[in-house]
Design goal:
single chain, 327 residues, mainly beta, Jelly Rolls, 2 domains, 6-stranded antiparallel sheet
């Protein structure tokens, strides 16, 4: 079946209390008429936020309709058997003009029991960070739940959280259960399970647009926090130019960094999965059997599982992509 081709989607823009303008100024996305944009949902099957195809003969159809029609040809047979018509991952660009709330996400088991939803394991790739910007990930010491609750109740939560200064190219893997927050002045790419379940722990006593304090979920959060301490919460990796370099791999997704300055041949015949490219820097063309698709900085492209071999041709001196699939 098929006739499938590299698919682009219309971004779904979300204004946030903490949103900024970098999604426009750095990623070339026009989010007007919004006054700011905290999140650009690039590829989503979350209810009421389902992505719509923007290119080719399938333009105007939504992602769920596409999975329903093309099934394994689009997402891969094993992925379709596991997830059905629900696309299993959510891709975002996030821009912070203020600190985000300190939060945690439940795992699949708890999310299914409480919310009939998937849990949320995610990762971040930092595209830009203002000097001194930080990310909170985990704790700075080994603590128990009882100790955590004591610090929280005494207003001293920040004393036990791990704050890392961040720079462009930094990677954080955030499994379900890890307390985390993105600080202000950061533009990043987020890859996560298809879920919108978040337990907000602390929000700096901010009020929403209606003047109300934002809801906190500490009773729910305390049950799912993983108190395991790590020496280093940043993901360390090495990059080999013109080849895919793995930076994160878990049961939910594998993410590679692909930095290339010359034509690259890709063969995904051994991977029974869709491929998603998030364009971090540069522009390029995807040359496949039936055509060519040009891709620019800030664009996200879904490569159907049936499109196993093609070439990537740079249109700028160097191109940086996040390459994502499910093993």
């Amino acid at each position: 079946m098929s006739g499938l081709y590299p698919l682009k989607f219309k971004p779904i823009f979300h204004a946030k209390l903490w949103g900024g303008s970098r999604i426009k100024t750095m990623l070339n996305k026009d989010f007007s008429p919004l006054s700011n944009c905290g999140e650009s949902w690039e590829l989503s099957s979350v209810e009421e936020n389902i992505s719509e195809i923007a290119n080719g003969f399938l333009a105007g159809n939504d992602l769920t309709e596409l999975v329903e029609v093309y099934m394994g040809d689009l997402v891969g047979d094993k992925v379709y058997r596991k997830f059905g018509i629900e696309f299993p991952l959510l891709f975002k660009f996030i821009d912070t003009n203020d600190d985000l709330s300190i939060q945690v996400h439940p795992n699949d088991e708890t999310a299914k029991e409480r919310h009939s939803a998937y849990g949320k394991t995610e990762m971040w790739y930092v595209i830009h960070a203002e000097k001194g910007s930080h990310i909170i990930s985990g704790f700075n010491r080994q603590i128990t739940r009882e100790q955590y609750e004591e610090y929280f109740e005494n207003g001293k939560l920040s004393e036990i959280l791990q704050y890392d200064e961040v720079f462009a190219g930094d990677v954080f893997f955030i499994p379900a259960g890890r307390v985390h927050a993105i600080g202000k002045g950061i533009l990043l790419a987020e890859i996560q399970e298809t879920s919108d379940v978040t337990y907000r722990i602390y929000d700096y006593d901010r009020k929403d647009a209606e003047g109300n304090f934002r809801e906190l979920h500490n009773d729910l959060a305390a049950d799912v926090i993983d108190f395991t301490y790590l020496d280093d919460y940043k993901t360390r990796y090495t990059v080999q130019k013109n080849k895919s370099s793995e930076i994160v791999s878990c049961e939910y997704f594998t993410t590679n960094l692909l930095v290339f300055s010359e034509e690259v041949e890709k063969d995904y015949s051994r991977i029974d999965s869709f491929i998603v490219y998030m364009t971090i820097e540069g522009s390029f063309s995807i040359l496949y059997e039936n055509g060519e698709e040009t891709v620019s900085k800030g664009e996200t492209v879904l490569i159907p599982a049936s499109l196993e071999t093609f070439r990537l041709k740079p249109a700028s001196p160097e191109v940086t992509l996040l390459e994502v699939y499910i093993k």
